[in-house]
Design brief:
The chain is built from 8 helices and no strands. One of its GO terms (cellular component) is plasma membrane.
């Protein structure tokens, strides 16, 4: 099915954020209905699982594929959400950002240790930079993901559930977008090195 550019953006939004939006709405609707924060979190996890599953289905139906990152994120939401519902323990859903960001950070930094550039493998066709630029960008993102994992641990262990839910979404998304913008100067700096040198005039 051929989609217009605007329709494609809506589909991508559902795939990427459908589960998290459903989780946010479900939590505050249940809180407004008089549930305790713990009860609201458990009930909102049903929304998270349902929204994540719907996002994966929508992506497959309209795009005929599921991109790696939405597949990983959606699969993790199903796993941690399922554990939360099975054990009736909200710690599982709270730990998901910690576990996933730690895995991403370790994968990126581990790739550097092995002299690989994981980000280049994922974005190499879209962004042109020499290896030194990719190494610095990979290091920055690896440390950033580990910082997000630590920040999530701090927030869910010290703040009320209402605060953590907003931190989870859209808080983490906002931090990620801002960090991405902060990397633009680095990417522009090293992207310029791929330009051919100006002709030499005697």
């Amino acid at each position: 099915m051929k989609l217009s550019p605007s329709a494609r953006k809506w589909v991508r939004g559902v795939v990427d954020y459908g589960g998290l939006v459903a989780f946010l709405i479900g939590f505050f609707l249940n809180r407004g209905g008089g549930m305790t924060s713990q009860e609201a979190l458990v009930q909102a996890t049903w929304w998270l699982v349902g929204g994540s599953l719907l996002g994966l289905v929508v992506g497959f139906v309209f795009e005929k594929r599921i991109a790696p990152f939405p597949l990983i994120a959606g699969g993790a939401a199903l796993v941690f959400g399922g554990l939360t519902l099975f054990f009736h323990d909200v710690r599982f859903v709270k730990l998901k950002p910690t576990v996933m960001n730690t895995l991403f950070g370790v994968a990126l930094l581990g790739g550097l240790v092995l002299r690989k550039n994981p980000l280049k493998l994922l974005l190499g066709d879209a962004v042109k930079m020499p290896d030194v630029g990719w190494r610095k960008l990979t290091l920055n993102y690896g440390l950033f993901f580990l910082a997000l994992a630590a920040l999530n641990e701090f927030v869910w262990r010290t703040q009320p559930d209402d605060v953590w839910v907003v931190f989870r979404f859209p808080g983490l998304l906002i931090l990620t977008v801002l960090f991405g913008f902060a990397q633009v100067p680095l990417m522009m700096k090293y992207a310029k090195t791929d330009e051919p040198p100006p002709p030499h005039v005697e």
